[in-house]
Structures are given as C-alpha cells and as structure tokens.
Amino acid sequence: MSQNRFQALVLREEDKKTNASIEELTMDALPAEDTLVKVDYSTLNYKDALAVTGKGKIVRTWPMVPGIDFSGTVVESSNPKYQPGTQVVLTGWSVGEKYWGGYSQYQRVNSDWLVPLPEGLSTREAMMIGTAGFTAMLCVNALENANITPQSGPVLVTGAAGGVGSVAVAILKKRGYSVTALTGDIEKHAYVSQLGATAFADGPQWQEVPRALEGQRWAAAIDTVGSKVLARVLAEMDYGGVVAACGLAGGADLTTSVMPFILRSVKLIGVDSVMLPTKDRLHAWQRIVHDLPMEVLRGITAATVSLNDVKNAAEDMLGGKLKGRVLVDVNAA
Ligand code: NDP
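^ thats the input. predicted complex w/ NDP below
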C-alpha cells in the first residue's frame, strides 16, 4: 500500500439508509486537522456497531469513517508535543461520530484528542483495552473516589460479559474486590468466572419493575445496562452504596424513585469517557497498566477482525452473540 493511497471503511447515507463499504482513499481526502496518524488498531464498541449497521443515530456528519477509538504512530504534526514516531491512543471526543475515526489505515486528528501511549503498553494492547476498557477503569475510579474499598462489601457488575463489563470485572478482581456478575446468558458464566466474578445475580426479577426499596445486596455497582436493570440495582444497594452508571445497553430510560437516595444515602455517579478532560485520561491510562493484568486482557479479546469483517462483527454484537472485546486490525487483509 503506498503511503498516499490507503483503505478505510466509509459510511455513506443513501435513501436514509447507512451503506458501509471499504474505499481506497488518498491523504488529501482526510480532514484538515493538525496531526496525521498511521493507525495500527481500532476496536468494535457498542456505538460503532450501531453506526456501522445504521441501527442507531450515531453518525452526525456524512460521509463518515467510523471507529470511536484507535492506536497508532504519529507521521507528522504541527504540535511539537507529537514528534513523528510517537505512539498514541485516542478515545472519545466524538471521533467516529462527528469526526473521522479509526477504521482507516491513516487518520488526521486534532492533537488535543491524543494521549501518548503509556509506557509498558503496545498499540495492540491499548486497543485490546479500547474505549470499553478505559471506561471500565473510569467506573472503578469513580467508586474508589467515593470511598469504596474491597472491605466495603460485594460489587455488582451488570452486562458483565460485554466489553465494559468484562474489563470492570477483571480490574475489580485484581484490586481485591468480591465481584458478583449479572449476565443475561448462562452460557457466559464460565467466561465471566475466569475474569474474576465469584457469584452471579441472574434471575427473572431483572425483567420486572423493582419496588422502591428491595433487600440490600451491594456495596457498589458498575452498571452498563440502564433502564429496569439500573432501577433494580439502585433499589438493592446497601446503605451508603455507590453506583457508577456508564451504559444503556438495555435502554436509556430510568424509572426509579428517590427512596434509595433519601433513605439509604445511595450515590449514583455518571461516568463519561467522551469529553473527559485530558489530565483525567492520562491518569486512567496510567492506572490501567497496573490494574489490568495483560494475560486476563488477552482472554477478554474475543476476536481480531479486518476492516472487511467489521460489519458482521457489528451484527453479532447487537445480536448479543459476542463475549468480550473485538479488536480491529486495520492493516489485516
Ligand atoms: P457490549 O455490547 O460489549 O456489552 C453490553 C452488554 O450489556 C451485553 O454483553 C449484555 O451483557 C448486556 N445487555 C445488552 N443488551 C441488554 C438488555 N437488553 N438487557 C440487559 N442487558 C443487556 O457493549 P459495551 O460493553 O461496549 O458497552 C456497554 C454500554 O456502555 C453501552 O451502552 C455503551 O454505549 C456504553 N458505553 C459508555 C461509555 C461512556 O463513556 N459512558 C463508553 C463505552 C461504552 P451480558 O452479555 O452479560 O448479558
């Protein structure tokens, strides 16, 4: 592949439908941002799956190169902080939604969105972690900043076999927490147990609307599902319990009452990875190197796919057929 011609997955809107195809682009087709990056890896996140299949309103400008995160090497930059050869990682900032993203062999981005790769992490490992793993780290940070410790009691992780949930279980386990998992599929129990969950919370009650207060079960929780699941999590929290909520895999609604907050002092903390200030990103990436064992991370990476295979993997993700993370090798044939 000549450096001037390269491949990207491009989404175009045709008759209100999303059409995804591999296109050969030239450098002058890339956005006029200050830093050119040779991309090594991207990943498949829930948002990417919605964008690529057209099943969710994620893309805000057309045509779009999706991929909300990537890792690679700086080729050129007008920002002196990013010399050619610097390895970088990018998550969030509406890349892959509003600005062109990681499903491309080269991308030009705003250098303010980049983070230098932390020492001890390869570009492959950085994307095995990706936005999902990074968000899991932010959730654990949120709980610990609210004074949760392994001595506080059991921590519940919902959507535990998903990308965020898997990494959250692994990090919590490494930090000495007792982790209970909620996963909709009993076949995924072995996988989630391997990551470090010691109990499962599954049961028909998760399909039902909870009472304002249920029996107290959890010192803390990381919720990736939202909707009825988050409502039940809140109702089941211990007195003083803390919930970090980052996802809406089960729905964006939340019907609850003030009871958990005013009678049990429960704290509900929102976690966002997209617009997070850079200093907090640097801190979270540094922490992840220590708090996520690499051998566990390898077990979380379910598959490595090429740009050609992204669409099928996206359908599988939305169909709930995946466990763990999908790495996208943008240079694979
Ligand atoms: P995945 O698709 O990998 O995992 C989501 C998991 O949620 C599934 O594996 C499944 O868990 C569970 N789930 C899916 N649908 C339902 C449902 N209808 N009811 C109950 N459980 C369900 O996605 P990610 O882990 O990548 O992302 C999870 C959520 O977090 C998404 O909503 C995503 O948009 C959000 N997110 C937010 C970020 C932020 O910055 N706030 C950043 C990254 C992600 P199981 O298989 O265990 O049943």
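The two ends are 11 Å apart (CA to CA).
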